[in-house]
Amino acid sequence: MLNLIVILVLSYLVGSIPTGIIIGKMAKGIDPRDHGSGSMGATNVLRLLGWKYGVLTIVLDAFKGVLAVVVISRLYLGSFPFPNATPFDDFTLVQILAGLVAVIGHIWTVFAGFKGGKGIATGLGFMISIVTVDLLLALGVFVIVVYFSKYISLGSISAAVSIPIIMAVRENFFGIDIPGYHTILPFCIILALLVIFTHRTNITRLISGNENRVSFSKNKS
Questions:
Q1: At 219, is the pLDDT very low, low, confident or very high (cuts 50, 70, 90)?
Q2: Contact 100, 163 (CB under 8 A)
Q3: pLDDT tens digits, one per residue of 63-90
Q4: In terms of C-beta density within 10 A (0-12 exposed, 13-18 middle, 19 or more buried), how is residue 26 classed?
Q5: Which of 124, 155, 176, 221 could disulfide-pair with 145, CB 3.0 to 4.6 Å?
Q6: What is the distance between the alpha carbons of residues 127 and 125, in angstroms, rounded to a whole number?
């Protein structure tokens, strides 16, 4: 039990690293949470500091998810404290839990008063290590939605929601055997619900027509 707790705590702490705040402070001496949407996530950093810093924030936030799944989970010593009724081996289940906790850390970071980002990039890093094909298809959904709507928030929500839908379609309609489908699907649904929750103010603005559209041509360099 102690081994699993250590892994989850470390994953949470890595996910909690306030990348956007660090970049904002180092680049312009500002805290992104005091400007724009009030988030330390990549979208707000992009609007405030330009696409270069926005992309850097995305990459580093995604790396937090990868780090939890690929590195921290390696601390697992083969002593899972509960009966494992999933089709995964214990280690893979630990990887999924570590990735999910890293996303929670990003959203409610202990290093910034539990006010963090919206979990998209860290979730990206987590999911690409677990369901690569479905995640890549979801990225396609994100690009298409953002291209036509110019709303990054709508693209993020659409991509997160599309992952469990894509998995269900591939498994049940195309007959593609996704290893551990019945175990991964609930985690993907939980992650999608987290993304919807963190974007609740964006959803309100989308409905009222007050959400900011992104325009890369006008961003600062």
A1: very low
A2: no
A3: 999 999 999 999 988 777 778 777 777 8
A4: exposed
A5: 155
A6: 6
Q: How many CA atoms lie within 13 A of 160 on its CB side?
A: 28
Distance CA 216, CA 221 (A): 10
Query: Which two three-digit tokens encode residue 196?
Result: 């919807």
Alpha carbon distance 203, 151 (integer Å): 11
pTM: 0.83
Q: How far apart are CA 47 and CA 172, in angstroms?
A: 40
pLDDT in tens, 143-186: 999 999 999 999 999 999 999 999 999 999 999 988 888 888 99
Residue 164, exposed/middle/buried by CB under 10 A (0-12, 13-18, 19+)? buried
Rounded CA gap, 81 and 74, in Å?
A: 16
**Cβ proximity of 156 and 142 under 8 Å:** yes
For 48-73, what is the HEC assignment? Answer: HHCHHHHHHHHHHHHHHHHHHHHHHH
CA distance 197 to 7: 25
Quote the CA–CA distance of 187 and 211 in Å, as a whole number.
29
213 C-beta neighbours (distance < 10 Å), count: 10
